[in-house]
What does this fold into?
Amino acid sequence: QVQLVESGGGLVQAGGSLRLSCAASGSAASIDTFGWYRQAAGKQREFVASIGRDGTTGYADFLKGRFTVSRDNAKNTLYLQMNTLKSEDTAVYSCYARTLPFLRLYWGLGTQVTVSS
It folds into this structure.
């Protein structure tokens, strides 16, 4: 079992920055891939970014370089640095973890990010 807790969300003006964190506990050493999804009100959940244990990253095309995902394996923590935020980035951001060897998925409860224009 892995428990995930996000933090760092809040209200920010358009053009500003936020850094989200996702702290893992439990069997965190078994985490292979860490990542972020987001869900805006009335919309489907969408992929944002992911990072493997070896540091390989993946990003949604719409980000266009504005966000950076990273992880600290020693602290079992995932980060999402979000720059040049836009109103359309307003959403609940949730982290997920995929563990080995059975590729189980775990989710955090999410943190609200609101960007005011």
